[in-house]
């Protein structure tokens, strides 16, 4: 293997956790196998020194043996040793950020917190701001016993909205869970986590009292979940274990931390340890204060730095009434840092405070630039602030983002208010995000779709903060415009519950100083709210709900908005309700899109028309619509649109028996969904591949693909995708003769389909359950199931589903010895399939041929067997 690459991969993990002996041993083995014996020995020497300095202990016997083996060139180091190294890489945590610098002075605390997590399900780290709670929590989370679904960091500092629902949505977003039906986001989150085994690190909880309610709900519902919280105060829940985090010892650990950070800022500079110890004492051993101070050593030196600290503490020596001691120390430290800045640096720092979750360079320029500061100078000023550790630079998919440490952000916000700039800078921030959301809305329908998804992912907390402010202050126009711009993003990301709640909140705003809101805008947001509700299947009377939303466009003159609303609402109603009504609505939308020259709208309407054509027996027209939609989406560069048409074309290829084309289309769909990061769409495409494998008779591949799809959908709480995949498992199980497994899979989803998925999904499950009963010889149960399935199929208006139910009933008649009845029903089924324009392909004729043969045997004495075979061949 490439041992050098393995050693390189491990070096970052060793740097992040230098005292973890198993990681260190894996690194040493990889270095030795790469021919770097000297580096391997140096790594062991470094660990020996760290253990002595940090813990006052010697290396373990296992490490001593490893040292001897390296010296002796033991051949066993290559082979089993490398497998151990590879296993160590595989065990690394996958969802927690890896720090760039090692944690200093917390080895004992890390072990203590990890032990508490092993014994208890809720541990809260408490202590003042800047004491290092977050860093300790992350290190302890990485050191804790493995969790099947990993450890996840949920940063709550940027959340301003109140209520458990907002907290639950932030957690669901971090875990990439798709929201589904139900009015309570907390209950949905708890339900989505019920089978998960993971560690949630809830960071910065003290400003959100509702975090405790959400944590309690999750812990009650999900026995495999553990919570590690950081807060200035305990959550106050039963069973909570509180672990106070103390400052570093100013004489030892704090000095080591300061020297490490100062050494990075001023390499090669020798510092006086006694002077550094005095600096650490004056800064109370708070890691945040120490790290900020260490960056000044290069400019000031340790003695001048100490003198300045004397002056700054003197400023607050008398104290401020009502302010905790820990805040006085942080305020003094940040005051000192503030006074080291130039006036332009101060201007940028205080204006950056309006971003709840940081910003990119364009965002920084938008809020910081003004008459007193040129936009072209902002980048350099932000870089200087980053050099001084007042701004943290975070790499993301769309480029670097700039964030303020939480205490620095609070301080900068006070300075912003004191300067009288909060209103002006807040409006700049709002206008920048409104314009960004509008650009993203357009970009999400073109070739830069993935880029704009990443941009809105990064700005999600800031956008939520602006929306919350608009709702709170009665800024109806801002709230409605923002929801209208973000609706398609929420849809693509599967955040339907968040979209519906946001639209409802915007519609409920009581405008300050008169309405003045465009009627078309209000109608569009109403259509978003109704469309999300329809997609969720959360309310009875979905079709009536959609019609009421369309009625709001009357008198607005917004023809484009009405056309879009007709399409979007019909998209959620596929398979539910009156299919001919949906067809008429989409046809009206298509006519309007063509009149308006909206090519994306035309493509979307044509794609949906293709889906609606299938159950009505208009297969050829549907195929033409799908081809036209694909050409338009390809011209526009809309990958989501191509993905959607891929589904339609693949389904048609399956129906026609062209399984090679269906497989190729689903393969293409998998690539698109992966590139766009659309996990729920990927689940559908994997299940589509599974259906093709099933039709080809490759049951092992079908089961593997359907199970992968089911697990992916379940991880994202996507019930409809999970149902589609598990029904595929049921289809495969029945065809392999595993009737009990098939029934178990089907029964899991029957009630849900009857309640939420519409008649078409229920028709298929009822038909499959009917076949299971018939194959077991239970004619009465099979008859009842197939009759229910026939009723559902007729309600859905799907000729192929009707034919399937009739074929099932034919099997019941054959089972009871009624060959003539079976023959009649097979003939009726064949007629329905002929009317649909989609004959039954050979790979799907197993049940029909089996039942036809049974009926023929019953009627063979009368000479009717050959006729039955002819009738059933449609």
From TrEMBL:
InterPro entries tied to this protein: BTAD, HTH_77, P-loop_NTPase, TPR-like_helical_dom_sf
Domain Bacterial transcriptional activator per the UniProt entry, residue ranges: 1-71
Record Gene3D superfamilies: P-loop containing nucleotide triphosphate hydrolases, Tetratricopeptide repeat domain
Segments forming domain Winged helix-turn-helix: 341-417
Top-rank lineage group of the source organism: Bacteria
Name this protein carries in UniProt: AfsR/SARP family transcriptional regulator
